[in-house]
Amino acid sequence: MEFQENDIILFQGDSITDWGRNYEDPSSLGVGYALMVAARLGLLYPEKKLTFINRGISGNRAADLQRRWDKDCLELKPTVVSIYIGINDTWRRFDSGEETTAAQFEASYRDIIERTLRATHAKLILVEPFVLPVPEDRKGWRQDLDPKIHVVRELAREYGALLVPLDGLFAAASVKADSVFWAPDGVHPSPAGHALITEAWLKAAGAIS
């Protein structure tokens, strides 16, 4: 993907995207991978005058994105839309018994993609969710999360979106250092985990090799 002059790059998702952003400041990027990606792209393409927007909200599921998509995506007129959602669609099943089936997840995700493509000419970057086996009970989440990861991969293929294949990348990284190094609770990345996401995102977008 080639970034164009004056591109507006929108990061959408849950707490992993949100990561400390100031909701009172529309330009706040938080202190996670969204900031890291923006910093690297600004360094790589200073002449392109890129704009970065973060609208991740902690705790969000795919259906939450659906409900706020007009205001927090379409009205912003982005030219690149990065979507990173799914772990809370699994988490809520285990912490409060609120299940989101893979079919429901796919329906919500497909809807926001369709609406984006109808209203904009934005390029799409889909970031698949991941989970690591710390603490031990996270292993039981795989039966719920794996079908959702496959949904993200299939949607990326179907719509010609770029895919950031995080689940496999975090599993591979956990061979080099314990899972807890990358995500202390198996879900929320450490600083090194955010750097891993950043590198994977930039590679998927073709900004680095």
From TrEMBL:
Taxonomic lineage of the native organism: Bacteria, Bacillati, Bacillota, Bacilli, Bacillales
Species per Swiss-Prot/TrEMBL record: Paenibacillus jilunlii
Gene3D superfamilies associated with the record: SGNH hydrolase (3.40.50.1110)
SUPFAM superfamilies: SGNH hydrolase
Positions in coiled-coil regions: none
Sequence ranges assigned to domain SGNH hydrolase-type esterase in this UniProt record: 13-196
InterPro entries: Ester_Hydrolysis_Enzymes, SGNH_hydro, SGNH_hydro_sf
Protein name per the record: GDSL family lipase
GO molecular-function terms, A-Z: phosphatidylcholine lysophospholipase activity
